[in-house]
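Second attempt. The first submission of phosphopyruvate hydratase had a stray character pasted in from the spreadsheet, which I only caught after the job came back as garbage. Lesson logged: always re-copy from the clean sequence file. Corrected sequence (430 aa) follows.
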Amino acid sequence: MAKTTIKQVKARQIYDSRANPTVEVDVILECGVMGRGLVPSGASTGKHEAIELRDNNPQRLGGKSVLNAVKNVNELIGPRIVGLDAMDQSLIDNLLLEIDGTPNKAKMGANAILGVSMATAWAAANAQGIPLYRYLGGSNARILPVPMIQIIGGGMHANGSIDIQDYMVVPVGAGSFAEAIEMVVNVYHGTRQVFAGKGKPVSVADEGGFWPTFKHNTEGLDLLVAGIEKAGYRPGEDIAIALDVAASHFYEDGKYCFSLENRKMDQEEFADILVSWVDKYPIISIEDGMAEDDWEGWKILTKKMKSRIQLVGDDLFVTNIDRIQRGVENGIGNSVLIKLNQIGTLTETMQAIELTKNAGYLPVVSARSGETEDASIVHLAIATGAGQLKVGSVARSERGAKWNEGIRIEEQLGAMGIYPGKELFKRIIK
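This time the job returned cleanly.
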């Protein structure tokens, strides 16, 4: 038998950063080498995402246990892939889709399928004695991602305390990935000082950013600019701002409803609000500026913004090739958020990134609000040359695990490594 032949597949229930159950899978090869996949979970989920299978037993972990997904791996999926070569990633991923047989992974669960897919890739890479980014990307894997890092967390990441979900920074002026993280850490602590000076709480939201208590949504932008300046950086030059609006969560009956400001807006009015923010603040990127099925609203927003900023579709595209293709054909947005568990296999995720890049859009590889210590997405971002990585904040160890892995990989790459900085955005911003 080849040393990379799969000998055993074993899944278990573990817990994520929100103390919710999730799936972990080990794939063990004939040579004794193991690969492990830990599956993340989102709070702000699009309705077109692949299905995360939970048990819905109110007597067990509030209905959130994943024992059925674990059972599916151990009893249904595992026996079908034992004896296959872990190096055949696409073959195994296609078999996983065949075993499930549904368009949205509803039978086996995307969490079961993704755990197996990730663990298989890690096992193959470990058997070769090379990092996952090199195994997946070959010699072309040398572009370090520009970080998109949360400083203030709102929306569903902070119990709906404000309407906007994420106020983030992008270190466009950094000369390296390590410097980029250092700059953001300085901004994080600078913003903490600004919060403290204004009597704001400095407790943290799900992804490590500060938990907001604002009177209006632009207060977050004002405080973030102050935090950048407090850290000694130039807003827009050294550090730009990115927003995850997560508009689907306050879209009701064709209106965009800011509960914080008791305000209802139609598509045109809401697009104008976002344009006014871009006029006033150093914003380089807006994610989910319109709702997931408001294609007309997205057309309006894209037309108004033109090529001024990055317009990222998350709930709109859900890492789904068909939805991404529809967006490209209609000229909607210019960037796609990429999440492994939105689609369910590594192969499908890499195909989505390839389609995004070939269309001239920018991919943004992203974590979820419910995370683990797994750093696979860092390797994925570098393997595919995606160019951007969104993980949450710089606080909390499930976030730091990803940023620290990026620092290590940059060190490994040495002179081969490229940190694109603001040059990356020149592909879409004119």
